Amino acid sequence: MIKKFLKNWDKFLLFLMLAIYVVVMSFLSIRKYQSFADSYDLANADQTVWTSGHDYPFSLTGVKGRVSRLQFHADFILALLAPFYWLWNDVRMLLILQSLSLALAGVVLFYLARDILKNKLVALILSASYWLNPGLLWTNIYDVHGVSFAPFLLLLLFWLVYKMKWKLVWPIFILSIFCKENVALFTAMLGLGMLFSPKRRKIGVIMFLVSSVYFYVASFVWIPHFSDNGQHWVMGWYSDAKRKLFEIKSATSLWFFVKGYFFNFDSFKYYRKLLEPFAFLPLLSVWPLFLVAPELAIISLSSQGQMKSIVMHYDSLMVVGMVIANIWTVKYISWLFKKIKIVPILVSLLILVASLRSNYFYSPLPTTPGHWRLMYRLRQVEKDFDKVLKQIPTEDIITASSEVRNHLTHRVNAFNLPHGIEEADWIAMTEKNHLVGDYEKKPFETDLIKKLDADDNYQLVFHQGDYFLYKRK
Question: What value does the CA radius of gyration of the chain take, rounded to a whole number of Å?
């Protein structure tokens, strides 16, 4: 037994860390859900998975009723997860799957780094650094998104391309671009990068062309077709950048455009938060960052400030680019100091220390002093409210606050307030926001509670704390 451990010490430690990550992040994700601290995106993802296993594939409840998920995103990966609900028909299954997928990316990272660097210890340290990354942890804890399944698939795709395992490349490629429409830009850049390798050039051309066409069709044909306004719903975030782009008349105006979007105060603040867990070393290995250049443009040109943050899920693809860049950085530094054998270990330890520091200050874990403790606060009132919600018949129509709706989305019609009040048999609410950093009263729900209390057509079924449930008589 001891000899077997000594022979496979790296794999033992790798899967021990994997297990710890999955258990901890699954527990925290579920605890956040049980505390009614999850929101709109979890409800949409959960309902999409649920409907895909029933008679309404890849659909969810929109403003006016049932709509295609393509009204929002081309994340077909959610539909492919439907069979897991046959094993356990519960949103917690989806939360566990997301944690498992993000964790498995660390395993792929280990094998990729081991094959490139030829050093098990360094590969293990880089995987540990990945699992500690605060941006990754926020992606894991902040609802569920199709793009959250991309890091595992993209790292696996990159590793398979590196190993030239072409029979496995294409199914993983398809699954990758199914995570979200913009993931195809990453795979397109990967295809371009393969042009510099004669043995990979032909596959690279095909990957680039397929990715480019898929991104265009998904973003500018499918989603606009199902959208209410005939375009991708995020296009409004880029109207200012589009206007300024067409105003460029000279090299000077081009510089001011680039400076205004990529080199402003908020951008540098974002770059620091993004690079700090990697000890800023990805900057020494520019070519892997080429993979996420389109994603950086999408983030930087957006007027939506929350995209320039490691909180939420918008840095999912950026983290993939960073970890790949750090592998090559370690390789380059090791080559420069090839006579000093301990250099790759020292560099990887520097990355680990940077990850630990960033994790301590910026992660959503309870070990971070400034974390929002209310998102893990599970009281008896939350348990009682959830128990009552589970008694609502699945054929009934509901409308609910965003924090409550994800407890009720295993049905065809589950509206998000303020929509669906006229159609709903049940109205479930929380009077306060339960979002990270926001526990203020909800103006709409507060007014609605007063109206429903005065309306003889509704019966108050449950009220404890800031939780309310009304039934239409």
Answer: 24
Long-range pairs for 360-367 at CB < 8 Å and ≥24 separation? 361/134, 362/134, 362/273, 362/310, 363/132, 363/134, 363/137, 363/138, 364/28, 364/134, 364/137, 364/138, 364/141, 364/142, 364/436, 365/24, 365/28, 365/137, 366/28
Structure tokens at 282: 């990805």
End-to-end CA distance of the chain, in Å?
Answer: 67
- Reported confidence tier of residue 3, pLDDT bands at 50, 70, 90: confident
What rounded mean pLDDT belongs to the chain? 95
Q: What is the pLDDT of residue 339?
A: 87
Surface-to-core class of residue 94, CB atoms within 10 Å of its CB (0-12 exposed, 13-18 middle, 19+ buried)? buried
- The pLDDT, as a whole number, for residue 360 is 96
The pLDDT tens digits for 72-115 are 999 999 999 999 999 999 999 999 999 999 999 999 999 999 99
Residue 1: what pLDDT?
66
Longest CA pairwise span in the chain (Å): 83
Q: How many CB atoms lie within 10 A of CB 160?
A: 20
| Under 8 Å between Cβ of 25 and 102 | yes
208: its two tokens:
């680039």
User: 257 CB contacts (<8 Å, ≥6 apart)?
Assistant: 244, 245, 248
